[in-house]
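Long-time lurker, first post. I've been practising inverse folding by hand and with some scripts of my own, and I keep getting stuck on stretches where the structure tokens seem ambiguous. Below is the full token string for one chain I'm working on. Before anyone asks, I'm not after the true native sequence, just a reasonable design that respects the backbone. If someone could post their per-position residues I'd love to compare against what I wrote down in my notebook.
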């Protein structure tokens, strides 16, 4: 065979390109909330930080607003490796294991400080559950406190009978049952449409989601019950993480820790901003009546008792750790 310098040079150039391509890793990050939501903005900053800290070795693409997977499908996508990393609403998985639902129990942890304690108490159990499924928990960030959106005035739980209630989790569907409302599970990305078409006329969530979904165009009242602060969790497929070199793994961990600190701060700071914004859009943002609070606390007590029964020793460990302040 004749030596062909030109072909050899091409081969070498090709090998060089291939080397560059394999050194750079790309991850998809499905998320369920719109680009302007504070959680999604935090993810974008996280991705930019990973890019910088890994010197461009790991590129993470955020897919907002349930565009890649629906909210309740993201966990399985990360487990199966269809996505390497994803943001989930932990309480969505309460039926899989009660521990995921600890931060969705009404009136268990109602302030940011208590919510942080609950997050710390939950973490070892969540780490164990996710590890058993080949995943890891990178960080969590809470939504602002949950209140009640309604089309009409509510002065007691009796007034909630027959409401067409949007649920986002097993626990929010259970609330509907307990107050005599009709639950319909709808992910945040489809909430605007459900409100506009009258499929639902009430739900519990943060000022953040009321603002994102333009709830003020359909409903008039929001009762600031501050009932619980559910958390988003960013989870990673462990095999994808293990395939990174050590400096890149460190970059992910560092950017994740920063995102957690930043996210908790922004959530708390924006809570008041959202309430003001909703009021400016014409909503009545009000404290709940004493009767409504007392009634909702009864609902919460029933749900805590039910939860403790199904959560077993893992759940008991979470509550004990949380109460040991
Ligand atoms: N917003 C999300 C979950 C909790 C919240 O505040 C939602 O309504 O879907």
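-- Answer (accepted) --
I ran through it position by position. Result:
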């Amino acid at each position: 065979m004749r030596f062909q310098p030109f072909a050899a040079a091409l081969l070498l150039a090709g090998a060089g390109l291939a080397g560059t391509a394999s050194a750079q890793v790309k991850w998809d990050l499905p998320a369920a909330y719109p680009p302007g939501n504070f959680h999604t903005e935090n993810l974008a900053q996280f991705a930019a930080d990973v890019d910088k800290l890994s010197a461009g070795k790991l590129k993470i693409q955020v897919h907002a607003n349930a565009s890649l997977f629906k909210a309740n499908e993201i966990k399985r996508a990360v487990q199966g490796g269809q996505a390497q990393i994803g943001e989930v609403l932990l309480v969505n998985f309460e039926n899989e294991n009660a521990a995921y639902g600890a931060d969705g129990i009404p009136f268990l942890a109602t302030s940011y400080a208590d919510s942080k304690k609950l997050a710390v108490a939950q973490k070892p159990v969540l780490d164990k559950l996710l590890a058993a499924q080949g995943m890891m928990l990178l960080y969590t960030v809470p939504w602002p406190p949950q209140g009640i959106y309604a089309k009409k005035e509510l002065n007691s739980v009796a007034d909630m009978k027959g409401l067409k209630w949007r649920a986002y989790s097993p626990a929010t569907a259970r609330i509907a049952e307990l107050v005599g409302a009709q639950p319909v599970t709808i992910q945040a990305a489809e909430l605007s449409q459900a409100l506009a078409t009258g499929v639902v006329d009430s739900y519990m969530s943060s000022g953040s989601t009321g603002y994102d979904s333009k709830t003020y165009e359909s409903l008039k009242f929001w009762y600031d019950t501050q009932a619980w602060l559910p958390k988003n969790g960013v989870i990673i497929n462990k095999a994808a993480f293990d395939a990174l070199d050590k400096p890149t793994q460190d970059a992910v961990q560092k950017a994740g820790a920063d995102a957690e600190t930043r996210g908790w701060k922004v959530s708390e700071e924006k809570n008041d901003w959202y309430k003001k914004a909703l009021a400016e859009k014409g909503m009545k943002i009000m404290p709940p009546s004493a009767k409504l609070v007392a009634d909702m606390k009864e609902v919460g007590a029933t749900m805590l008792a039910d939860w403790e029964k199904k959560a077993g020793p893992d759940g008991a460990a979470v509550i004990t750790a949380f109460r040991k302040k």
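A couple of notes from the structure itself: The pocket of pyroglutamic acid is lined by residues 89, 143, 168, 188, 205-206, 208-209, 230 (CB under 6 Å). The first strand starts at residue 25 and ends at 30. Happy to go over any region you disagree with.
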